[in-house]
């Protein structure tokens, strides 16, 4: 894939109930709100992307990952969501991610982590403003 090629994603959703949304990616379907809420899905996406990016970076650096454990934490003030006044942002106030990596042999994990942080698409979307246009059809 060249530097100028974009991968396009289009995901559809339909309301199942006030708390559940069926999401169709074209390849798979899942229901947000069935097992976890939307914030937990988002946090899981951060960890899933760090895992896949970390795996690709390790392959590129000839690092053999034996295990990778990750934790992400963040706080949300649901006041605005509930229609109340709040000085806090509506979304997550910040994220803290902790990674624990076991490798076969010696590895420069600081260089690995720097490359993972640079190459992870989902954390890039968290750290940098991504415009969201919401409209009615």
Description:
The protein contains 3 helices and 5 strands, in the order βββαββαα. The chain is α+β, with helices and mostly antiparallel strands. The strands form 2 sheets. The protein has a 3-stranded antiparallel β-sheet, with no helix packed on it. A two-stranded antiparallel sheet has the order 4-5. α1 crosses α2. The two termini are 34 Å apart.
Shape descriptor = globular
- How confident overall, as mean pLDDT? 94
Number of strands: 5
Q: Main sheet: which strands, in order across?
A: 1-2-3
H/E series, N to C?
Answer: EEEHEEHH
Let me know the largest β-sheet.
3 strands, antiparallel
Low-confidence stretches: none
What features would you highlight for this structure?
single chain, 137 residues, alpha+beta, two-stranded antiparallel sheet, 5 strands
Brief sketch in words of this structure:
With 137 residues, the protein is an alpha+beta fold.
Write the layout of secondary structure elements.
Elements: E1 12-15, E2 21-24, E3 29-32, H1 38-60, E4 64-74, E5 95-104, H2 109-119, H3 121-127
Antiparallel strand pairs: 1-2, 2-3, 4-5
């Amino acid at each position: 894939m060249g530097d100028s090629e974009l991968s396009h994603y289009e995901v559809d959703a339909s309301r199942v109930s006030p708390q559940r949304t069926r999401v169709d990616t074209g390849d798979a379907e899942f229901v947000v709100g069935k097992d976890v809420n939307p914030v937990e899905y988002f946090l899981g996406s951060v960890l899933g992307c760090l895992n896949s990016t970390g795996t690709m970076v390790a392959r590129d650096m000839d690092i053999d990952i034996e295990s990778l454990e990750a934790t992400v934490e963040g706080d949300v003030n649901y006041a605005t969501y509930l229609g109340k006044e709040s000085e806090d942002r509506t979304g997550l106030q910040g994220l803290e991610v902790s990674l624990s990596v076991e490798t076969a042999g010696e590895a420069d994990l600081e260089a690995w982590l720097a490359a993972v942080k640079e190459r992870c698409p989902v954390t890039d979307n968290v750290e940098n403003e991504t415009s969201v246009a919401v409209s009615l059809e």
